[in-house]
Design goal:
It is a single chain. This protein has 288 residues and is of the alpha/beta class. It is built from twelve helices and eleven strands. Helix 3 crosses helix 10. The radius of gyration is 20 Å and the shape is globular.
Protein backbone atom coordinates (compact mmCIF):
# COMPACT_ATOMS: atom_id res chain seq x y z
CA UNK A 1 0.00 0.00 0.00
CA UNK A 2 2.84 2.40 0.85
CA UNK A 3 4.49 1.73 -2.51
CA UNK A 4 1.21 2.35 -4.38
CA UNK A 5 0.73 5.67 -2.62
CA UNK A 6 4.32 6.63 -3.43
CA UNK A 7 3.86 5.84 -7.11
CA UNK A 8 0.61 7.83 -7.24
CA UNK A 9 2.19 10.82 -5.51
CA UNK A 10 5.19 10.86 -7.83
CA UNK A 11 2.92 10.42 -10.83
CA UNK A 12 0.68 13.32 -9.85
CA UNK A 13 3.67 15.59 -9.20
CA UNK A 14 5.17 14.72 -12.56
CA UNK A 15 1.83 15.41 -14.25
CA UNK A 16 1.49 18.84 -12.65
CA UNK A 17 5.00 19.86 -13.69
CA UNK A 18 4.47 18.56 -17.21
CA UNK A 19 1.06 20.16 -17.57
CA UNK A 20 2.34 23.59 -16.66
CA UNK A 21 5.09 23.47 -19.29
CA UNK A 22 8.64 22.21 -19.85
CA UNK A 23 10.38 24.78 -17.64
CA UNK A 24 7.74 24.95 -14.94
CA UNK A 25 9.44 23.72 -11.79
CA UNK A 26 7.48 26.21 -9.71
CA UNK A 27 4.26 26.43 -11.74
CA UNK A 28 1.27 24.26 -10.83
CA UNK A 29 -2.27 24.13 -12.09
CA UNK A 30 -4.86 26.26 -10.35
CA UNK A 31 -7.54 24.01 -11.88
CA UNK A 32 -7.64 21.39 -14.63
CA UNK A 33 -10.37 20.72 -17.19
CA UNK A 34 -10.90 17.68 -19.38
CA UNK A 35 -9.58 14.15 -19.18
CA UNK A 36 -7.72 13.76 -22.47
CA UNK A 37 -4.15 12.64 -23.03
CA UNK A 38 -2.97 15.82 -24.81
CA UNK A 39 -2.14 18.19 -21.99
CA UNK A 40 -1.60 21.91 -22.41
CA UNK A 41 -1.33 24.83 -20.01
CA UNK A 42 -2.86 28.30 -20.15
CA UNK A 43 -2.19 31.33 -17.96
CA UNK A 44 -4.87 33.98 -17.47
CA UNK A 45 -6.65 35.93 -14.75
CA UNK A 46 -10.31 36.95 -14.85
CA UNK A 47 -11.47 34.49 -17.58
CA UNK A 48 -10.32 31.72 -15.26
CA UNK A 49 -11.56 33.30 -12.03
CA UNK A 50 -15.02 33.93 -13.46
CA UNK A 51 -15.44 30.50 -15.08
CA UNK A 52 -15.33 31.44 -18.79
CA UNK A 53 -12.21 29.36 -19.34
CA UNK A 54 -13.89 26.33 -17.81
CA UNK A 55 -16.89 26.73 -20.13
CA UNK A 56 -14.62 26.96 -23.19
CA UNK A 57 -12.47 24.03 -22.09
CA UNK A 58 -15.43 21.78 -21.34
CA UNK A 59 -16.64 22.28 -24.91
CA UNK A 60 -13.20 21.86 -26.52
CA UNK A 61 -11.45 19.15 -24.53
CA UNK A 62 -13.66 16.07 -25.09
CA UNK A 63 -13.51 16.14 -28.89
CA UNK A 64 -9.84 17.19 -28.86
CA UNK A 65 -8.96 14.45 -26.33
CA UNK A 66 -7.19 17.18 -24.39
CA UNK A 67 -6.70 18.29 -20.80
CA UNK A 68 -6.20 21.95 -19.94
CA UNK A 69 -4.18 23.18 -16.96
CA UNK A 70 -5.18 26.71 -15.91
CA UNK A 71 -2.46 28.74 -14.18
CA UNK A 72 -3.92 31.80 -12.44
CA UNK A 73 -1.91 34.91 -13.30
CA UNK A 74 -2.49 38.48 -14.40
CA UNK A 75 -1.56 39.57 -17.91
CA UNK A 76 2.01 40.64 -17.10
CA UNK A 77 2.76 37.48 -15.15
CA UNK A 78 1.06 35.32 -17.80
CA UNK A 79 3.25 36.75 -20.56
CA UNK A 80 6.35 36.24 -18.40
CA UNK A 81 5.39 32.57 -17.97
CA UNK A 82 4.92 32.21 -21.73
CA UNK A 83 8.28 33.83 -22.43
CA UNK A 84 9.98 31.35 -20.09
CA UNK A 85 8.18 28.41 -21.76
CA UNK A 86 6.42 27.62 -18.48
CA UNK A 87 2.95 27.66 -20.08
CA UNK A 88 1.80 26.83 -23.59
CA UNK A 89 -0.54 29.79 -24.11
CA UNK A 90 -2.13 32.84 -22.50
CA UNK A 91 -5.32 34.90 -22.61
CA UNK A 92 -4.35 38.48 -21.79
CA UNK A 93 -5.31 42.13 -22.18
CA UNK A 94 -2.01 44.00 -22.55
CA UNK A 95 -1.85 44.94 -26.26
CA UNK A 96 1.54 46.69 -26.27
CA UNK A 97 3.23 43.84 -24.41
CA UNK A 98 1.50 41.27 -26.64
CA UNK A 99 2.74 42.96 -29.81
CA UNK A 100 6.27 43.14 -28.39
CA UNK A 101 6.15 39.41 -27.60
CA UNK A 102 5.23 38.57 -31.19
CA UNK A 103 7.86 40.96 -32.57
CA UNK A 104 10.52 39.35 -30.37
CA UNK A 105 9.57 35.92 -31.72
CA UNK A 106 8.68 34.01 -28.55
CA UNK A 107 4.90 34.29 -28.96
CA UNK A 108 2.65 33.64 -31.95
CA UNK A 109 -0.96 33.26 -33.11
CA UNK A 110 -2.06 36.55 -31.47
CA UNK A 111 -5.83 36.33 -31.93
CA UNK A 112 -8.59 38.69 -30.81
CA UNK A 113 -11.11 36.68 -28.78
CA UNK A 114 -13.37 39.23 -27.06
CA UNK A 115 -13.56 42.18 -24.73
CA UNK A 116 -15.01 43.76 -21.67
CA UNK A 117 -14.41 47.25 -20.30
CA UNK A 118 -13.23 48.94 -17.18
CA UNK A 119 -15.54 50.67 -14.71
CA UNK A 120 -14.43 52.99 -11.95
CA UNK A 121 -16.38 52.02 -8.87
CA UNK A 122 -16.49 53.66 -5.47
CA UNK A 123 -18.64 54.54 -2.48
CA UNK A 124 -22.12 55.84 -3.26
CA UNK A 125 -21.28 59.16 -1.59
CA UNK A 126 -18.64 59.72 -4.31
CA UNK A 127 -16.38 62.01 -2.23
CA UNK A 128 -14.23 62.91 -5.26
CA UNK A 129 -17.24 63.71 -7.46
CA UNK A 130 -16.11 61.51 -10.35
CA UNK A 131 -19.65 60.84 -11.56
CA UNK A 132 -19.50 64.23 -13.29
CA UNK A 133 -16.21 63.48 -15.08
CA UNK A 134 -16.17 63.35 -18.88
CA UNK A 135 -13.08 61.13 -19.21
CA UNK A 136 -11.30 58.54 -17.12
CA UNK A 137 -8.32 60.89 -16.81
CA UNK A 138 -10.57 63.60 -15.37
CA UNK A 139 -12.01 61.10 -12.89
CA UNK A 140 -8.51 60.17 -11.76
CA UNK A 141 -7.54 63.84 -11.38
CA UNK A 142 -10.56 64.40 -9.14
CA UNK A 143 -9.59 61.41 -6.98
CA UNK A 144 -6.00 62.62 -6.64
CA UNK A 145 -6.94 66.25 -5.93
CA UNK A 146 -9.34 65.20 -3.17
CA UNK A 147 -6.92 62.53 -1.91
CA UNK A 148 -9.79 60.06 -1.78
CA UNK A 149 -8.75 56.46 -1.17
CA UNK A 150 -7.89 54.63 -4.39
CA UNK A 151 -6.91 50.97 -4.54
CA UNK A 152 -4.43 49.76 -7.15
CA UNK A 153 -3.56 46.16 -7.89
CA UNK A 154 0.05 47.23 -8.46
CA UNK A 155 0.91 43.83 -9.94
CA UNK A 156 1.85 44.54 -13.58
CA UNK A 157 -1.44 42.97 -14.68
CA UNK A 158 -3.38 44.27 -17.67
CA UNK A 159 -5.60 46.18 -15.24
CA UNK A 160 -2.58 47.77 -13.57
CA UNK A 161 -1.07 48.70 -16.94
CA UNK A 162 -4.33 50.38 -17.99
CA UNK A 163 -4.58 52.19 -14.65
CA UNK A 164 -1.06 53.57 -15.09
CA UNK A 165 -1.93 54.69 -18.62
CA UNK A 166 -4.91 56.65 -17.27
CA UNK A 167 -2.73 58.28 -14.61
CA UNK A 168 -0.34 59.18 -17.42
CA UNK A 169 -3.16 60.82 -19.37
CA UNK A 170 -4.04 62.76 -16.22
CA UNK A 171 -0.43 63.89 -15.82
CA UNK A 172 -0.25 62.47 -12.29
CA UNK A 173 2.20 60.11 -10.57
CA UNK A 174 -0.03 58.80 -7.75
CA UNK A 175 1.55 58.64 -4.30
CA UNK A 176 0.52 59.15 -0.70
CA UNK A 177 -1.54 57.49 1.99
CA UNK A 178 -4.67 57.76 -0.20
CA UNK A 179 -3.11 55.54 -2.91
CA UNK A 180 -3.18 51.94 -1.66
CA UNK A 181 -1.35 49.17 -3.55
CA UNK A 182 -2.81 45.74 -2.82
CA UNK A 183 -0.62 43.47 -4.97
CA UNK A 184 -3.69 41.23 -5.29
CA UNK A 185 -6.06 39.93 -7.97
CA UNK A 186 -9.17 41.67 -9.29
CA UNK A 187 -11.87 40.16 -7.09
CA UNK A 188 -9.83 40.41 -3.90
CA UNK A 189 -9.05 44.07 -4.55
CA UNK A 190 -12.67 44.82 -5.42
CA UNK A 191 -13.77 43.28 -2.10
CA UNK A 192 -11.22 45.38 -0.27
CA UNK A 193 -12.51 48.54 -1.96
CA UNK A 194 -16.00 47.64 -0.77
CA UNK A 195 -14.80 47.09 2.80
CA UNK A 196 -12.62 50.20 2.96
CA UNK A 197 -14.81 52.60 0.99
CA UNK A 198 -12.26 53.25 -1.75
CA UNK A 199 -12.29 53.78 -5.51
CA UNK A 200 -11.11 50.99 -7.81
CA UNK A 201 -11.00 50.34 -11.54
CA UNK A 202 -12.53 46.91 -12.08
CA UNK A 203 -13.29 45.09 -15.28
CA UNK A 204 -16.97 44.91 -16.13
CA UNK A 205 -16.99 41.09 -16.10
CA UNK A 206 -15.86 40.90 -12.48
CA UNK A 207 -18.29 43.66 -11.50
CA UNK A 208 -21.29 41.93 -13.10
CA UNK A 209 -20.34 38.66 -11.42
CA UNK A 210 -19.63 40.14 -7.97
CA UNK A 211 -21.78 43.27 -7.65
CA UNK A 212 -24.40 41.64 -5.41
CA UNK A 213 -21.66 41.00 -2.87
CA UNK A 214 -20.47 44.64 -2.97
CA UNK A 215 -23.19 46.59 -1.12
CA UNK A 216 -21.00 49.64 -0.49
CA UNK A 217 -19.87 50.21 -4.07
CA UNK A 218 -21.51 51.48 -7.24
CA UNK A 219 -20.34 52.20 -10.77
CA UNK A 220 -19.49 55.91 -10.80
CA UNK A 221 -17.74 56.23 -14.16
CA UNK A 222 -17.85 54.26 -17.40
CA UNK A 223 -18.01 54.84 -21.13
CA UNK A 224 -14.59 56.25 -22.03
CA UNK A 225 -13.50 54.29 -25.14
CA UNK A 226 -9.99 54.20 -23.67
CA UNK A 227 -11.33 51.86 -21.00
CA UNK A 228 -12.43 49.16 -23.44
CA UNK A 229 -10.42 46.07 -22.66
CA UNK A 230 -9.62 43.75 -25.59
CA UNK A 231 -8.49 40.17 -24.91
CA UNK A 232 -6.13 38.20 -27.13
CA UNK A 233 -4.91 34.63 -27.04
CA UNK A 234 -1.27 33.86 -27.82
CA UNK A 235 0.75 30.65 -27.77
CA UNK A 236 4.38 29.70 -27.96
CA UNK A 237 6.03 29.88 -31.35
CA UNK A 238 6.57 26.50 -33.00
CA UNK A 239 8.27 25.34 -36.22
CA UNK A 240 6.09 25.89 -39.29
CA UNK A 241 6.36 22.24 -40.33
CA UNK A 242 5.17 20.83 -37.00
CA UNK A 243 1.59 19.72 -36.35
CA UNK A 244 -0.63 22.29 -34.60
CA UNK A 245 -0.26 22.04 -30.83
CA UNK A 246 -3.29 21.62 -28.55
CA UNK A 247 -2.82 25.26 -27.53
CA UNK A 248 -2.91 26.39 -31.16
CA UNK A 249 -6.03 24.30 -31.80
CA UNK A 250 -7.66 25.79 -28.70
CA UNK A 251 -7.03 29.28 -30.06
CA UNK A 252 -8.77 28.25 -33.30
CA UNK A 253 -11.72 26.93 -31.28
CA UNK A 254 -12.09 30.06 -29.16
CA UNK A 255 -12.02 32.22 -32.30
CA UNK A 256 -14.56 29.96 -34.08
CA UNK A 257 -18.29 30.58 -34.06
CA UNK A 258 -18.74 27.84 -31.45
CA UNK A 259 -16.24 29.49 -29.12
CA UNK A 260 -17.57 32.97 -29.77
CA UNK A 261 -21.10 31.84 -28.98
CA UNK A 262 -19.90 30.66 -25.57
CA UNK A 263 -18.17 34.00 -24.95
CA UNK A 264 -21.20 36.06 -26.02
CA UNK A 265 -23.60 34.20 -23.78
CA UNK A 266 -21.40 33.52 -20.79
CA UNK A 267 -22.89 34.77 -17.55
CA UNK A 268 -26.11 36.11 -19.11
CA UNK A 269 -29.26 35.42 -17.09
CA UNK A 270 -32.77 35.70 -18.56
CA UNK A 271 -31.54 37.61 -21.58
CA UNK A 272 -29.47 40.04 -19.50
CA UNK A 273 -25.94 41.19 -20.22
CA UNK A 274 -23.17 38.64 -20.39
CA UNK A 275 -19.79 39.01 -18.77
CA UNK A 276 -17.89 39.45 -22.06
CA UNK A 277 -18.40 40.79 -25.56
CA UNK A 278 -17.29 38.76 -28.56
CA UNK A 279 -14.46 39.44 -30.99
CA UNK A 280 -16.77 41.05 -33.57
CA UNK A 281 -17.75 43.72 -31.03
CA UNK A 282 -14.18 44.09 -29.74
CA UNK A 283 -12.73 44.62 -33.21
CA UNK A 284 -14.01 48.20 -33.41
CA UNK A 285 -11.68 49.09 -30.53
CA UNK A 286 -8.55 47.50 -32.00
CA UNK A 287 -5.75 50.01 -32.60
CA UNK A 288 -3.90 47.92 -35.20
Amino acid sequence: MIRIRYVLTVGLLAWFLYAAGPGAAEVTCTETYGEGTEIFSLATGSPGELGLLRALAESFCPAAEARLCWVKAGSGASLALLEKDEVDMVMVHAPAAEKAAVAEGWAARRTLIGSNEFYIVGPGSDPAGIADAETAAEAYRKIAESESKFLSRGDNSGTHKKELAVWGQAGIAPAGDWYVVTGDFMTATLKRADTEGGYFMTDSSTWIAEREAMPNLKVLFRGDPFLVNTYHALCRSQPAESAPSPASRFIDFVASESGQEIIRGYGAVDGGEGLYNDAAYARQFEKD
